[in-house]
């Protein structure tokens, strides 16, 4: 009769010592359902975005091209400025690039600020002492227009960066004057906007994108690209970056494939001496260290042009000189095999047949050789064992050698039994 098991506080667990590949703890069903619903929403949003892009992309692109043409600065009007000159432009751009990086603003904010600066300088006379003030006001307007609110610089921060050269009221007055001069038309399709259109539905390649942005920021320092449309600059910079990085160019039916070759050549000629501020900015890991990569590419191209560059060649086997053969030197030497084929056969000895007929013939040939050798040159007689070596009596050689005709002695030569 089975005894009842006493009741205990510990109940058996069905999963004890059960192997499982699931190393993560079990998720709450509500949390799992929430994640699944979120992923479904993302999939629906991507599908709707693709449908909207196919329907409105052409209209958006045509509107951007129209705005790009309407908001271009006039470089000839900047040429007639009395105080500011083109050699002052790199110093102001270096300051604006450092301020842009310090406030962590969007890339489009920098391009928009430079566009506002050039458009204002093409319509108003700017004094040299106010050139930096106009640049700071343009950066402030661009940040308010398209950047995050927490990243927008304050007037106090801009005043501190200018070493308190301007008062607070001067920033406000210049900001208002820039907006009035431009007719409150701030929107301008920047080069990075066209770059995003060219790279849409493409596999993300950070090096291509960062190198294109690096080339486009280099173009800001040069007069010949101030009045260039942003769309032409974006397509040419993207094609040049793909060429440098050895990436595949777009198909002929894509929008980015219709780039201007003259603009591409002009951009490639300005890559040798970039601004040091810009070089340090793009040498960080955040931008894939693309400035160092471009510098290595240009150095390699320069060495190829000068003829000093030689491509790496595969290693070749070094011929080993043969050792000198033994040439009859005095002394002992280890015999060496010759590398050529001997005149009367090969180095490998022949195989001896193992049959009775060959063995008998071999024995007969050996015996015949012995008889010939004894007939031609008989062996010397050995003295008896009881003969002393001190005795002057010698053996008689005449009877032995007299049997051989070739050893017959002339008659006038006589032999004595003892010397």
From TrEMBL:
Domain Cyclin-like per the UniProt entry, residue ranges: 94-180, 193-273
Family: Belongs to the cyclin family.
PANTHER family reported for this sequence: CYCLINS
GO biological-process terms attached to the record: cell cycle G1/S phase transition; cell division; regulation of cell cycle
SUPFAM superfamilies, alphabetized: Cyclin-like
Any matching Pfam family: Cyclin_C
Domain Cyclin C-terminal: 189-296
Molecular functions (GO terms): cyclin-dependent protein serine/threonine kinase regulator activity
Record's signal peptide: none
Key words of the record: Cell cycle, Cell division, Cyclin
CDD domains: CYCLIN_CCNO-like_rpt2 (cd20537), CYCLIN_ScCLN_like (cd20559)
Protein name: Uncharacterized protein
InterPro entries, A to Z: Cyclin (IPR039361), Cyclin-like_dom (IPR013763), Cyclin-like_sf (IPR036915), Cyclin_C-dom (IPR004367), Cyclin_N (IPR006671), Cyclins_cyclin-box (IPR048258)
